[in-house]
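Appendix C: a fully annotated inverse folding record. The material below is reproduced so that readers can follow the format used throughout the book. The structure is listed first as tokens, followed by the designed sequence.
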């Protein structure tokens, strides 16, 4: 009789132990799924792949040269060759164009390049005491 009681008690303990194990496993699974859902809501933990490519072409900028009455023609031709990679003929043509019409295009570049070329040209002109003016214009 006493032996039977001990066997029953051991069986109950074992059952309790198994139940606790099952509950722990379920709790862990619940936590894992709950956290994954939260991540989805927050936009974390999920890699969103978009088949469309969203690359935008960078805007291009014209470097515009302005006419003035004081900068020597030879100096303008010289800077067009030095900073804008123009041949002697091209540079002369652009300079004459600016001289006659008031404005002309030295070249078209991305913003950083256009800004850098315009600034270097202006600095060079000031160092040589010429009032040459350049501007950027978005294409
Ligand atoms: N007009 C100037 C002159 O007669 C020449 C010149 C040309 C100046 C183009 C600036 O961007 C310019 N000496």
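Designed amino acids, in order:
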């Amino acid at each position: 009789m006493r032996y039977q009681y001990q066997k029953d008690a051991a069986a109950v303990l074992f059952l309790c132990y198994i139940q606790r194990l099952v509950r722990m496993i379920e709790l862990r699974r619940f936590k894992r799924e709950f956290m994954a859902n939260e991540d989805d809501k927050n936009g974390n933990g999920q890699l969103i792949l978009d088949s469309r490519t969203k690359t935008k072409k960078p805007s291009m900028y014209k470097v515009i040269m302005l006419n003035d009455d004081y900068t020597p023609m030879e100096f303008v031709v010289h800077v067009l060759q030095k900073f804008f990679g123009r041949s002697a003929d091209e540079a002369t043509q652009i300079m004459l164009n600016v001289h006659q019409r008031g404005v002309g295009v030295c070249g078209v570049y991305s913003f950083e390049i256009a800004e850098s070329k315009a600034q270097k040209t202006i600095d060079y002109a000031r160092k040589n005491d010429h009032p040459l003016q350049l501007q950027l214009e978005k294409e």
